[in-house]
């Protein structure tokens, strides 16, 4: 769940408003930080934090508010390679291809095995 908008870092670009699939934010006035308007709709997808160029958003899962200042900020952007070291943060997502292919093959094999093990109903004529 969104824990904090760090006002001293926010540049009011509204990238988080655009990135949020659950419409948690409302735009602030021109140049002002956005407003967390619908916190209960937050699905903790981290997209707002990923897209924030200033690391002004902080999403914490189950972290007590008192510990916010102790937890490292901006770790999601860094861990996913979105720390500004590259021009296009999506250009390395091709590396997931083999992993996704393996997942599809594994699930297909399990489904096929399940189909073989499941008895089918026979119709009586």
UniProtKB/TrEMBL annotation:
Q: Where does the record place the 4Fe-4S ferredoxin-type domain?
A: 1-30, 32-62
| UniProt keyword terms in alphabetical order | Iron, Iron-sulfur, Metal-binding
- The keyword Zinc appears for this protein: no
Q: Name one GO molecular function term.
A: metal ion binding
Q: What is this protein called?
A: Ferredoxin family protein
